[in-house]
Design a protein that fits this description.
heterodimer; A: 538 residues; alpha/beta; 7-stranded mixed beta sheet; 6-stranded mixed beta sheet; 17 helices; 20% strand; globular; B: 539 residues; 19% strand
C-alpha cells in the first residue's frame, strides 16, 4: 500500500519545506500591487510543498469495483493553491448513476446488507474507523491537496472526527429500537423501524470527508445501501475511504461512489425512481432544485443542509478577548467556507469599538499560506469561481460604505488565496450582511439592546446556527430560545460532536444530521397491528 | 345554542325514519337489469330523502377568531351527495384570505399567546374542546354525513368519538414534549430543545373531514404551533362548526384559522406561502407532488404527505376464510371505498380462492346501500359527480379488460352518486383496476400461489400505504410483516386506527407519519444548544 510510505514522506515534506507564511497587510492590503509584492517576497514559494501522497483512485466505485465512467469521460480536479490539475477523475453521468443504483438496489433488495445482523454491520463500521485512523496522514494529505484546507486541520481535527462519527453510528446499529404501543382495543401494536432502502447522498466540497461521515454513517447503521455523489471540486478522498470500506468488509454494492457534476449526476440521482431517500448538503438554491426533482419524480423524502448567515452575538458583559477570538474562528475557520460560519458579528455598542479594534488585529495576525505548511491557519479558497464570488462581495462591501478594517484583496497571483478581511459599520441591508459569502470576510454590526438584536438576528431567510456570548444566565436562556436557528452555541462556536444534531430552520434546510436525530432520516416506520384473542392485558 | 336542540331532533328523526325500509341492496350478477329493477322499487323511497337533523350555522371563513366573508365576497355551493343539491353557499377563500389567515396565525405565534402559554394551559383547552365535541356529537355527525354522504351511524358512533379521542391523546402530549440532554465530547453542556415550528399550513381531504382535521390539528396545537387549515371544497361544513367549538373551549384568536376553498387557489397559496413554516397535506399522490414542488420553489417549508394507496389484502390458505371475507369486504367498502388505505387488491391463495370469491360476492350483494341517515345503512353515495364518474369509468375498464364482474357494476338509482357494491374476480396485476387507486366500492380479487410470489406482487406498486395479512401461521405473519413495503400492516384485522398507531406511507404513498408519538416531530424544530462549561464535575 502506498499509505505506508506516506507518513514518512509527509514528515520529510514538512521539515524540508521552506517558510511559506502569508500575512495580510492590514489597512493597506486592499492595495493589490502591495499584496503582489508581498507575495513576491516569499517567492521561495515557487517551492510549493509537494503533497506526500499519491492519487491511487480516480474511478467510480460501483458494486465493489473501481470502474471508468460509462461515457469514458473524465474531468480534472484542481489544486486550489495553484489551479493546476491534480488528477483526471471519471465523470459520472446518468448512466453511471443508473448502474450504481442498480448495484445498491440489489445489495438492499436481495441483501446481504439489511439481512446481516446489526452487530455484523456495526463491526464492519468499527473496522472502517480503525482503517481511517491507520491511514489518517494519507487521507489528511489528500483532503488538503484537493480542498486547500490546512493539513493540520485535516489531520488533527477532521480525520479523527471521521473515525469518531463512524464509531458513534456503529454503536447505534444495534440500538435501533421500535416501540410497542398501547392500543384502544384487543390489538397487539408494534412499530418496526426499517431501513428506507437505497439512499442517494450528495455532499459538498468544504468538508468532503466529514460530510461523507454525516451521511454514510447513519445510512449504513440503519441498514440502507448508498449511492453517494461527491463534489466535482473534491472527488479524491471519498474514493480512498471507499476502498478502505471494502477492506473493512463492506459487501459490494452497499456503498457506491460517483464523482461528477450536479446538473448531470446529481440531478439524475435526485430524480431517480429507484432511489428511496435523498440527502443533500449544499446551497439553498440547489437544495430547492433537488427537492423539486424529488417532488416531480417519486416523492423520495429529502433532507437538506443548506446555506446560512449565522449571527454571532457579543453582549456587553461578554469576555471580549474570548469573544474576539471565537468570532474570528467562527468566521475564518476553513477559509470561511462553512455553512454555519458566524458571518454576522453583532456586537453591543458598549464594547463595539474595542471589539472591532481587536478583531482587526486578530485578522491581521492570521497566518495565510500553503496549507501543507505547519502553523498556517488559512489556505486558498476552493476554486476560481468561489474566489471571484468572494472578491465580488468584498467590492460590494466597500461600495456600500462598510468600513474595510483590513484585508480586501487577493494574496499573490497564483491560486485562490484571499486576505482575511474585516468590515465594520455593516448595516443589515447591505448585501454582505444578507448573502452567504462563503469566504474569509467578517462583517461586524452594532446593536444596542436584546430585543433589537433578536429581531435583527432572525431577519434572514436562513436559520442554521448562532453564537451567543454573555455571562448572564438570563440573557443566554432568553436568546437561546428566541433565535430561530438549529444550533445555538453559547460562549463557544463550531462544536460538532457526533452526538449533537445539526440542521436548519427556515431556508437553511430540512431535517437534522448527527446524533440520534439523524437515524430518522434513514428509517421508515411500519406500524404492525395484530388482532389478539383473549389477551391477559391490553 | 342550537346544538342543544339537535340531539333530540336527531333521535326523533332517526326513530321516525326507522319504520320505512330504505336500504338498497346490490343485485349480484344480474346487475344491470337487476339494479334498475331494484332502484325502481325504491324510487319512491329515494324521493323521501331524509331531512338532516341539523342546520348549517357557519358558512364563512374562520380567521383570527371571527367568522368572515371571503375578501372577494365569492361563495361556492357545497352539495348533498345523496341528491347533488345545494346544502349551503360557503365563502370561497383565495390567496388574499390565506394571506389574512397567515397574518393572524403569524401574530398568534410570533407575539403569542399560544407558544407562550404553558403546555398545561394548552392541554386544558384541548381537553375542553374534546368535551365540547362529545356534547355536540350528534350535531357534528349529522353535518358530516350531510356534506360527505357517509352513514350517520359511522359518523356518530365512530368518527366523532374518534375526533374527541385523538384530541385527548394529543392534549396529553402537550406537556410531555421533552428535549434531551446530550453527552458531549468535551467541556460542553449540550441540550436539545424541541420547539414549535411556527405557522403550520394544513390541507385536508373530503373523505374523513373531521378525523383528518384531528390528525392535523391535534399534534400541531399540542406542540405549540398556530395553524391555517384548508378544508376540501366538497366538505367545508363540519370544520367550521368544530372551529367554533375550539374557540368556545378557550382557544385564543388566530391560533386556528380555517379557510374553505379550492386547491389551485387557496391550497396553492398555502403551499407556496413564504410565511408558513410547515405544510401537511392529505390527498392524492398527484396533488402531493404539486404541493411539494410549491414548497421547494417558495421557502422550503417542511412537508408531510399522506397520499394514495393500492393496498394489498392477503388471504393465506390457512386463514379463517369467513373472517377474511368479512374483513376484506370491510377493508374495501368502508366509507364507500373512499379510503386511502382501502384494501383494494385482495390477494387470495389459490386453495381458498373459489370459496373466497363466492362468499365475497354474497357479502357484497348483501351490503345495505341507501340514504346514509337511515339506520342500518352500510353505504351511502360517493362524494360527488367527479368521483362517481371516475369510479364508473374504472368499472367499465375492469369489464373491458376481461376481469369477471361478480356483483354490482353500475350506479344505484338516478339521483345522487350511489354505486352498487362491485366485485371483480380473475383480476390480473396489469389491469388498470389492479394498479390505480379507484377510491370507490369496487373490490378486485386476485389469485396467488405462494408467499414469494405474493410478496413480489404486493410490493410491485408505486404505493406503499398499508396491507392486510390473514393467516394463522406465526412464521407467515412475521415474514410478510417485514417484507411488505408499507406503512401499516394489519394482521387478522384491518383499519385499526387508534390514536397511538402511526400512519403513513412508503414510496409514493407519502412522507412522514401521522398519529402516535411520531406525528409530534412533524410539528417540532430541533434546536441544539451547546454551552461552554468551566470545571465540570462530569462529562
Amino acid at each position: 500500500m502506498a499509505a505506508r510510505r506516506v507518513s514518512s514522506l509527509l514528515s520529510r515534506s514538512f521539515s524540508a519545506s521552506s517558510p511559506f507564511l502569508f500575512r495580510s497587510q492590514g489597512r493597506n492590503c486592499y492595495n493589490g500591487s502591495r499584496v503582489v509584492r508581498r507575495f513576491g517576497t516569499s517567492s521561495k514559494a515557487e517551492g510549493i510543498i509537494s503533497p506526500s501522497v499519491q492519487v491511487s483512485y480516480t474511478q467510480l466505485l460501483i458494486d465493489g469495483n473501481f470502474v471508468d465512467a460509462a461515457s469514458g469521460k473524465t474531468f480534472p480536479t484542481l489544486d486550489p493553491r495553484t489551479g493546476e490539475v491534480i488528477a483526471n477523475v471519471a465523470e459520472g453521468d446518468a448512466e453511471d448513476i443508473n448502474r450504481a443504483v442498480k448495484a445498491a438496489r440489489k445489495a438492499f433488495d436481495e441483501g446481504p446488507w439489511p439481512k446481516m445482523t446489526a452487530y455484523e454491520r456495526s463491526r464492519i463500521m468499527l473496522r472502517f474507523a480503525d482503517l481511517v485512523e491507520k491511514h489518517s496522514e494519507e487521507l489528511a494529505a489528500l483532503e488538503t491537496w484537493d480542498n486547500g484546507k490546512t493539513y493540520q486541520q485535516a489531520k488533527t481535527a477532521e480525520i479523527p472526527m471521521v473515525a469518531r462519527l463512524f464509531r458513534y453510528y456503529a454503536g447505534w446499529a444495534d440500538k435501533i429500537h421500535g416501540l410497542t404501543v398501547p392500543a384502544d382495543g384487543n390489538y397487539h401494536v408494534q412499530t418496526l423501524h426499517e431501513p428506507i432502502g437505497v439512499a442517494g447522498q450528495i455532499i459538498p466540497w468544504n468538508f468532503p470527508l466529514l460530510m461523507f461521515a454525516w451521511k454514510v454513517g447513519p445510512a449504513l447503521a440503519c441498514g440502507n445501501t448508498i449511492v453517494l455523489k461527491t463534489a466535482e471540486q473534491t472527488p479524491l478522498t471519498a474514493f480512498y475511504v471507499g476502498k478502505l470500506f471494502l477492506e473493512a468488509g463492506l459487501p459490494p454494492g452497499v456503498l457506491n461512489i460517483v464523482s461528477g457534476f450536479g446538473p448531470t449526476a446529481g440531478a439524475s440521482l435526485a430524480s431517480h425512481m429507484d432511489v428511496d431517500k435523498l440527502a443533500f448538503t449544499g446551497s439553498t438554491d440547489t437544495g430547492k432544485v433537488i427537492l423539486g426533482l424529488a417532488a416531480s419524480s417519486n416523492l423520495k423524502p429529502v433532507t437538506l443542509e443548506l446555506g446560512g448567515k449565522s449571527p454571532f452575538i457579543v453582549f456587553e458583559d461578554a469576555d471580549i478577548n474570548k469573544a474576539v477570538e471565537l468570532a474570528h474562528f467562527a468566521l475564518f475557520f476553513n477559509q470561511g467556507q462553512c455553512c454555519c460560519a458566524g458571518s454576522r458579528t453583532f456586537v453591543h455598542e458598549k464594547v463595539y469599538d474595542e471589539f472591532v479594534e481587536k478583531a482587526k488585529a486578530r485578522a491581521l495576525k492570521r497566518v495565510v499560506g500553503d496549507p501543507f505548511k505547519k502553523g498556517i491557519e488559512q489556505g486558498p479558497q476552493i476554486d476560481s469561481k468561489q474566489f471571484e464570488k468572494v472578491m465580488r462581495y468584498i467590492r460590494s462591501g466597500v461600495e456600500s460604505n462598510a468600513t474595510l478594517e483590513c484585508g480586501g484583496g487577493q494574496i499573490g497571483n497564483k491560486g485562490y488565496f484571499i486576505q482575511p478581511t474585516v468590515f465594520s459599520n455593516v448595516k443589515d441591508d447591505m448585501l454582505i450582511a444578507q448573502d452567504e459569502i462563503f469566504g474569509p470576510v467578517q462583517s461586524i454590526l452594532k446593536f444596542s439592546d436584546v430585543d433589537e438584536v433578536i429581531r435583527r438576528a432572525n431577519e434572514t431567510r436562513y436559520g442554521l446556527a448562532a453564537g451567543v456570548f454573555t455571562k448572564s444566565l438570563d440573557t443566554a436562556n432568553r436568546v437561546s430560545r428566541a433565535l430561530k436557528a438549529g444550533t445555538v452555541w453559547v460562549n463557544c462556536f463550531d462544536v460538532f460532536d457526533a452526538a449533537i444534531p445539526f440542521g436548519g430552520y427556515k431556508m437553511s434546510g430540512n431535517g437534522r444530521e448527527k446524533g440520534i436525530y439523524s437515524l430518522n432520516n434513514y428509517l421508515q416506520v411500519k406500524a404492525v397491528v395484530t388482532a389478539l384473542n383473549n389477551p391477559a392485558w391490553i | 345554542m342550537a346544538s342543544r336542540r339537535v340531539s333530540s331532533l336527531l333521535s326523533r328523526s332517526l326513530m321516525s325514519s326507522s319504520s320505512s325500509l330504505f336500504s338498497l341492496r346490490g343485485k349480484g350478477h344480474l346487475v344491470n337489469r337487476g339494479v334498475a329493477q331494484g332502484y325502481s322499487n325504491l324510487a319512491s323511497a329515494l324521493e323521501e330523502t331524509i331531512t338532516p337533523p341539523v342546520k348549517v350555522q357557519h358558512n364563512q371563513l374562520l380567521i383570527n377568531g371571527k367568522f368572515v366573508d371571503s375578501a372577494s365576497g365569492k361563495t361556492f355551493p357545497t352539495l348533498d351527495p345523496r341528491t347533488g343539491e345545494v346544502i349551503a353557499q360557503v365563502a370561497e377563500g383565495d390567496v388574499e384570505d390565506v394571506n389574512r389567515a397567515v397574518v393572524a396565525a403569524r401574530k398568534a405565534f410570533d407575539e403569542g399567546p399560544w407558544p407562550r402559554m404553558t403546555a398545561y394551559e394548552r392541554s386544558k383547552i384541548l381537553f375542553r374542546f374534546a368535551d365540547l365535541i362529545e356534547k355536540h356529537n350528534d350535531e357534528i355527525a349529522a353535518l358530516e354525513t350531510w356534506d360527505n354522504g357517509k352513514p350517520y351511524e359511522q359518523s356518530a358512533k365512530i368518527e366523532v368519538p374518534m375526533l374527541a379521542r385523538v384530541f385527548r391523546y394529543y392534549a396529553g402530549w402537550a406537556d410531555k414534549i421533552h428535549g434531551m440532554t446530550v453527552p458531549g465530547d468535551g467541556s460542553h453542556h449540550v441540550q436539545t430543545l424541541h420547539e414549535p415550528i411556527g405557522v403550520a399550513g394544513q390541507i385536508i381531504p373530503w373523505n374523513f373531514p373531521l378525523i383528518m382535521l384531528s390528525w392535523k390539528l391535534g399534534p400541531a396545537l399540542a406542540c405549540g404551533n398556530t395553524v391555517v387549515l384548508k378544508t376540501a371544497e366538497q366538505t367545508p361544513l363540519s370544520a367550521l362548526l368544530v372551529g367554533r367549538l375550539l374557540h368556545e373551549a378557550g382557544l385564543p384568536e388566530g391560533v386556528v384559522n380555517i379557510v374553505s376553498g379550492f386547491g389551485p387557489t387557496a391550497g396553492a397559496a398555502i403551499a407556496s406561502h413564504m410565511d408558513i413554516d410547515k405544510v401537511a397535506f392529505t390527498g392524492s399522490t398527484d396533488v402531493g407532488k404539486v404541493i411539494l414542488e410549491l414548497a421547494s420553489k417558495s421557502n422550503l417549508k417542511a412537508v408531510t404527505l399522506e397520499l394514495g394507496g393500492k393496498s394489498p389484502f392477503i388471504v393465506c390458505e390457512d386463514a379463517d376464510v369467513d373472517q377474511a371475507v368479512e374483513l376484506a369486504h370491510f377493508a374495501l367498502f368502508f366509507n364507500q371505498g373512499q379510503c386511502c388505505c382501502a384494501g383494494s387488491r385482495t390477494f387470495v391463495h389459490e386453495r381458498v380462492y373459489d370459496e373466497f370469491v363466492e362468499k365475497a360476492k354474497a357479502r357484497a350483494i348483501n351490503r345495505a346501500v341507501g340514504d346514509p341517515f337511515k339506520s342500518g345503512i352500510e353505504q351511502g353515495p360517493q362524494v360527488d359527480s367527479e368521483q362517481f364518474e371516475k369510479i364508473l369509468k374504472y368499472i367499465r375498464h375492469g369489464v373491458d379488460s376481461g376481469a369477471t364482474l361478480q356483483a354490482g357494476g353500475d350506479r344505484l338509482g338516478s339521483k345522487g352518486y350511489y354505486i352498487q357494491p362491485t366485485v371483480f374476480s380473475d383480476v390480473k396485476d396489469d389491469m388498470l383496476i389492479a394498479k390505480d387507486e379507484i377510491f370507490g366500492p369496487v373490490q378486485t380479487i386476485l389469485k396467488f400461489k405462494d408467499l414469494d410470489e405474493v410478496i413480489a406482487r404486493a410490493n410491485n406498486s408505486r404505493y406503499g400505504l398499508a396491507a392486510g395479512v390473514f393467516t394463522q401461521n406465526l412464521d407467515t405473519a412475521n415474514r410478510l410483516m417485514r417484507a411488505l413495503r408499507v406503512g401499516s400492516v394489519w394482521i387478522n384485522c384491518f383499519d385499526v386506527f387508534d390514536a397511538t398507531i402511526p400512519f403513513g406511507g412508503y414510496k409514493m404513498s407519502g412522507i412522514g407519519r401521522e398519529k402516535g408519538i411520531y406525528s409530534l416531530s412533524n410539528y417540532l424544530q430541533v434546536k441544539a444548544v451547546v454551552t461552554a462549561i468551566k470545571n465540570p464535575a462530569w462529562l
